[in-house]
Design brief:
11% of the residues lie in helices and 31% in strands. With 244 residues, the chain is mainly beta.
Length: 244
């Protein structure tokens, strides 16, 4: 009985050891796995979009009539089929925009540049008068013609902030127009081409885009002697450029 009891006790202890401690195993690979992950660029898109609106028609916009003696107003525009001319003016541009109060005035139609781009743009304007075309007319920067007895004209650029007289060397003006306001552009996806898009929203009527607008203005010396300049045809050159 004593011998059997001892053996039973040893078996119980052996089971207790096996249940309470993990068994050590040989240093062999019990399992393995591997997988490859591939990255993919969803797409690329250019958000530098340039959309600039220029006047549709600028032909002859800067043609002008010099009338130092006020003949057009004295005759109610008889030589121009009764067109209306701004009172007390001596140099006239033909007007076509709705803001003009007369058919001809001493201010030209405006050249308005509207920036609908996603980026800001720069505008430069260069204006000059061809010296050889003056033919007896003097270009002055004094629109009051003080102590001036000659055939003189005054011309200048007006942009709502500045009035810059055009001298013998011409003038250059630069302006910046900011990018379209927030909300003017949106992202999209073209399911047919599988490409992303970035462009103006479908309805831009309520969006206020930045603009730059300029006009020419002028006058002639009504007290000058114009007898030697009746055949003159002054030529003015206006160049505007738009750049990122």
């Amino acid at each position: 009985m004593k011998h059997n009891s001892r053996r039973f006790t040893l078996i119980i202890l052996a089971l207790a050891v096996a249940a309470g401690f993990p068994a050590s195993v040989a240093a062999e690979e019990l399992g393995s796995g591997s997988e490859t992950g591939v990255g993919e660029v969803e797409g690329s898109i250019n958000t530098d979009v340039y959309e600039v609106v220029l006047p549709a028609v600028t032909d002859e916009i800067f043609d002008f009539i010099i009338d130092p003696y006020g003949l057009l107003n004295h005759t109610n525009g008889a030589a121009y089929e009764g067109k209306s001319f701004q009172e007390n003016s001596t140099l006239f541009f033909q007007r076509s925009d709705s803001t003009a109060e007369a058919d001809y005035s001493n201010m030209s139609d405006p050249v308005t540049i509207t920036n609908m781009s996603s980026k800001a743009i720069n505008v430069s304007v260069d204006i000059s008068v061809e010296e050889s075309s003056l033919d007896g007319i003097v270009l002055t920067e004094d629109k009051e013609f003080k102590d001036d007895a000659g055939a003189s004209i005054y011309m200048a650029l007006v942009d709502g902030v500045n009035e810059m007289p055009i001298g013998a060397d011409g003038i250059s003006v630069e302006a910046a127009i900011g990018a379209a306001p927030e909300g003017a552009y949106e992202y999209g996806y073209n399911s047919e081409s599988g490409e992303y898009t970035y462009g103006l929203t479908g309805d831009t009527s309520g969006i206020e885009f930045g603009t730059y607008s300029f006009q020419l203005t002028g006058a002639a010396n009504r007290n000058g002697d114009w007898s030697g300049a009746m055949d003159a045809k002054p030529q003015i050159k206006v160049v505007w450029r738009i750049m990122p």
